[in-house]
Design a protein that fits this description.
heterodimer, A: 7-stranded mixed sheet, 4-stranded antiparallel sheet, B: 4-stranded antiparallel sheet, 12 strands, 57% strand, globular
Chain lengths: 114, 110
């Protein structure tokens, strides 16, 4: 299995621009998670889906962030407009059994907003 | 509610010597406990998982952890460190939500 695939690996953008991060979960995994990792705050859960349905988006920082899962093999996390404080590594993870896992993480997207 | 505290932000060992990464937790539930490892520029990978079966849990790459309820601890150990073990390690607790520790960076000296 190819594992969880995220794209792009690196994204550099200017403040105010729209950013879209992409994730392909492992086939057969019903849960998909978006996490953000920073030095200051560690790993933060932004949102998770079960069977393509958003279950908990309470971690989404503000309305500038949105996530979709149009089908079982694809999810996006969009930031519009982006701000420098959004700079972080964003991870997508998938699981067959929810939080009790294991969670399988992608290699992340390193976002830099200048 | 639950929380997890990793007692050391950095640990440095020599290759071939034992590794001990310390983790204390609190949970209002009977928790599941995990250790994940993150190598540079990679995502997290599960090392091992405790779910109320045997208190000594064996994981991948020679790591193991012991669940001690009386001490609310779940320390990660390995008898002999290898250079490839250099990474960041996260202790994680699940009660009704998944909570990650702040991480311990393990350095292995040759």
């Amino acid at each position: 299995d190819a594992g969880v695939i995220q794209s792009p690996r690196h994204e550099v953008t200017e403040m105010g621009q729209e950013v879209t991060l992409r994730c392909k979960p492992i086939s057969g995994h019903d849960y998909l998670f978006w996490y953000r990792q920073t030095m200051m705050r560690g790993l933060e859960l932004l949102i998770y889906f079960n069977n393509n349905v958003p279950i908990d988006d309470s971690g989404m920082p503000e309305d500038r962030f949105s996530a979709k899962m149009p089908n079982a093999s694809f999810s996006t996390l969009k930031i519009q407009p982006s701000e420098p404080r959004d700079s972080a590594v964003y991870f997508c993870a998938s699981s067959q059994t929810g939080f009790q896992g294991p969670l399988h993480f992608g290699n992340g997207t390193r976002l830099t907003v200048t | 509610a639950q929380s997890v505290t990793q007692l050391d932000s950095h640990v440095s060992v020599s290759e071939g010597t034992p590794v001990l990464l310390r983790c204390n937790y609190s949970s209002s539930y009977s928790p599941s406990l995990f250790w994940y490892v993150q190598h540079p520029n990679k995502g997290l990978q599960l090392l091992l998982k405790y779910t109320s079966a045997a208190t000594l849990v064996k994981g991948i790459n020679g790591f193991e952890a012991e669940f001690k309820k009386s001490e609310t601890s779940f320390h990660l150990t390995k008898p002999s460190a290898h250079m490839s073990d250099a990474a960041e390690y996260f202790c994680v607790v699940y009660g009704n939500k998944l909570v990650f520790g702040a991480g311990t960076i393990l350095r292995v000296k040759s």
